């Protein structure tokens, strides 16, 4: 946003939202036991929406907001676009490369390599949205986003899956799965389909676009309380529109359906609006420091979590991995297995907080 002098200032709420989202991502990715996880801390098997399903779209929404904050000032200054394009492409390649590195862990078996994943999608969405932001107005971005959602809906619900003669939205037999089977190289996460596949990446661009629109609003000169009103109202109506679209195009993270985009972007907008009101307007920052610390090096900590997990999930104590040993210990003293698994996940988040805190205190900010 801009202050009274017209200069850009950071949003504490955005930093905290980014950090808490990464912490949530680590928590759901690394439970104490995959066999004992509360239902809402798992991804939906297919249609539906759980807490875990919200995490990835919220982070892509944050990517969009961050793009608006990163490049608005450069556009206003009239900076040359060619160097910006070079930096955007280079950063996207770095994030994608790190995603490939994580997919190779721990055995570095190139014959069984997956070319899709969370970081891969973040890299591609960042590349598309950043270039779009530099070359379009907010109205054009909104129009492009809406067009993508409608075209994706029509394609998925009107075009029969080749070879079947039927329109299907079931796992592995829908149009998106067919496209992945034909054109996505390497291993797919679910055998014959991938939740971060080719066709479903297009509506994920819109998740980033909704974040860019929110970022433009936050950078505007309207009064802070009016920004909150706009965020909450548009967020509510986005969720409502997604709910009704869900009746014909079910909310589904694996397909990243159009209804899923609207519901999750609406939720993200209301979450940002709430944090903005509490932290940036009202100055209520108590308890938000962990989020800000995680958010300062969000992707770096996400990568470290995968590396730390190799030790915690491979090192054995009395024949059991660290996570299994911890869960068994808690269950033996009377804890519910699902709660024990969650407590271990929270402990693992705490382990990752240590390097995040050290980097933050030393003012080391690693930008991939």
TrEMBL record:
<feature type="transmembrane region" description="Helical">
    <location>
        <begin position="291"/>
        <end position="315"/>
    </location>
</feature>
<feature type="transmembrane region" description="Helical">
    <location>
        <begin position="255"/>
        <end position="279"/>
    </location>
</feature>
<feature type="transmembrane region" description="Helical">
    <location>
        <begin position="118"/>
        <end position="135"/>
    </location>
</feature>
<feature type="transmembrane region" description="Helical">
    <location>
        <begin position="20"/>
        <end position="42"/>
    </location>
</feature>
<dbReference type="Pfam" id="PF07786">
    <property type="entry name" value="HGSNAT_cat"/>
</dbReference>
<keyword id="KW-1133">Transmembrane helix</keyword>
<keyword id="KW-0812">Transmembrane</keyword>
<keyword id="KW-0472">Membrane</keyword>
<feature type="domain" description="Heparan-alpha-glucosaminide N-acetyltransferase catalytic">
    <location>
        <begin position="10"/>
        <end position="225"/>
    </location>
</feature>
<dbReference type="InterPro" id="IPR012429">
    <property type="entry name" value="HGSNAT_cat"/>
</dbReference>
<feature type="transmembrane region" description="Helical">
    <location>
        <begin position="142"/>
        <end position="159"/>
    </location>
</feature>
<feature type="transmembrane region" description="Helical">
    <location>
        <begin position="84"/>
        <end position="106"/>
    </location>
</feature>
<protein>
    <submittedName>
        <fullName>Heparan-alpha-glucosaminide N-acetyltransferase domain-containing protein</fullName>
    </submittedName>
</protein>
<feature type="transmembrane region" description="Helical">
    <location>
        <begin position="230"/>
        <end position="249"/>
    </location>
</feature>
<feature type="transmembrane region" description="Helical">
    <location>
        <begin position="54"/>
        <end position="72"/>
    </location>
</feature>
<feature type="transmembrane region" description="Helical">
    <location>
        <begin position="198"/>
        <end position="218"/>
    </location>
</feature>
<feature type="transmembrane region" description="Helical">
    <location>
        <begin position="339"/>
        <end position="360"/>
    </location>
</feature>
